Amino acid sequence: QVKLIESGGGLVQAGGSLRLSCVASEGTSSSYGIGWFRQAPGKDREFVAALRWSGGTTYYEDSVKDRFTISRGNDENAVYLQMDSLKVEDTAVYYCSAAGPNIKRTGFRDQSGYGYWGQGTQVTVSS
């Protein structure tokens, strides 16, 4: 079973940057990619970004496109989310998850295609 651990969250002022890391306890080759999701207080968890291993295709939620960048580290067990020009509305707990075989049916933006969720890392953006 793949265990995912997120880190890199913290408190930052609006306009600042953070880099989140998602490290897998073992190889991620059995998955189809990694997705980042976030959940703000009182709201449902929502898609942020995803990276598909095959072809390296990336996907972004419209509000973070051009501000966030998802990438895979040289160590293939690590995936990063570089977050620039942060806004107060980016405040949330951020989770990474490994895409399973259902992703072929659901697509990378649908969290039902993912399994093996991490514990999350808090990102707080102050005004």
Describe the 3D structure.
The strands form 2 sheets. Strands 2, 4, 5, 6, 9, 10 and 11 form a 7-stranded mixed beta sheet that branches. Strands 1-3-8-7 form a 4-stranded antiparallel beta sheet, with no helix packed on it. By secondary structure, the protein is mainly beta. 3% of the residues lie in helices and 48% in strands. The chain is built from 1 helix and 11 strands.
Order of helices and strands: EEEEEEEEEHEE
Low-confidence stretches: none
**Global mean pLDDT:** 93
**Morphology call:** globular
Query: Beta-sheet strand percentage?
Result: over 45%
Structural class: mainly beta
Describe the main β-sheet briefly.
7 strands, mixed
Give the fraction of residues assigned to helices.
under 10%
Task: Tell me the number of strands.
Answer: 11
Features of the shown structure:
seven-stranded mixed beta sheet, four-stranded antiparallel beta sheet, globular
Provide a quick synopsis of the model:
With 127 residues, this protein is mostly beta strands. It contains one helix and eleven strands. Strands 2, 4, 5, 6, 9, 10 and 11 form a seven-stranded mixed sheet that branches. Strands 1-3-8-7 form a four-stranded antiparallel sheet, with no helix packed on it.
